[in-house]
Amino acid sequence: MARQANTRKSFIDSSIQQARSNNFLGLDLDWEYPSSDTDKTNFASLIKEWKEAVTKESRTSGKAPLLLSAAVAGSDQITPLKYYPGKDVANNLDFVNVMAYDLFTSEGYPTVTQPPAPWNNPRGQFSAEQGVTEWNKTLGVPLNKLNLGLPFYGYKWSLSDSNKNGLFAPAKQGLGAVKYKDIKNVAAQVVFDSTYVTNYCFKGTDWFGYDDTQSISAKVVNAKQKGLVGYFAWHIEQDSNWALSQADKWKFYLE
C-alpha cells in the first residue's frame, strides 16, 4: 500500500472517511514493521500525505483535525529503529505509541524465564526506558509526543526445577503468550521485581512473566517523571475485571 502514491491516497481517504463516519477523534497507524530504507521512505511519504489530507479535510468540513498517531517498535530487539523516519514522525504525527513490550518472549527465550517488558534492564540494553529514550534522543521525537505501551498479557514458561522459580530461572520450554486475566486465574504466587519493574508468578513448574498492578503503577509513574505525554495498553479485553485499567496511578492526561 505505501509503495505507490495512488494506493497511499486510497488508504488515506478511506481512513478519514471511516474516522468521520464513526465519530473517531483520530487514527492510529500500526505498521509492523518497517525493515528497510525503502520502507523508511514510504513510511515518511505516507504520514506526510496523511497529515496533509487531514488538514485539508478539516478546513473543508469545519471540524477539528483528526489526531494522527502510529504504533511503533519499542526497541531494536523488535526491529531496527533506524528504519523509522524520526523527523517526519515528529513533524506529522500528534502522538507516537511506543510498543514497549514483547522485548523478551518465551518463544524467543524458551530455556530461561524473562521479564517480557522490563522498564529497566541491568543485564542488557533492551528495556522500555531504553526504547523511549532512543525515540527521543536518536530519532528526535519530543518526549511530549511519546506514549508508553503497557501489555495486558504475559508469557508462560515451564520450569526445569520448581524450586528455581525467579527471573532468569532455567526452563524446559516456552509456552507462548497468555492474557492477564488467564494468568490471574492460575492463583499462583505473585512477585514484584522493582529492579526490572516487572511481575512474575509461579505455581509448580508453571511460570509467567507479565505486568500486574504493581509494575503497571510503577511504569506509569516512571513515564510521567520522564515527561511522556501518556500511556496506552494492548489490550483491554485481556484485563481481569478492570484490575490493570483501574490500577493506582493509572492516569491519562494531556498537557
From TrEMBL:
One of the GO BP terms on file: chitin catabolic process
Keywords: Glycosidase, Hydrolase
Key word Hydrolase present: yes
Residue ranges constituting the GH18 domain according to the UniProt record: 1-255
PROSITE patterns tied to this protein: GH18_2
SUPFAM superfamilies: (Trans)glycosidases (SSF51445), Chitinase insertion domain (SSF54556)
EC number: 3.2.1.14
GO cellular component: extracellular region
Top enzyme category: hydrolase
Cross-referenced Pfam families: Glyco_hydro_18
Gene Ontology terms for molecular function: chitin binding; endochitinase activity
Name of this chain's protein: Chitotriosidase-1
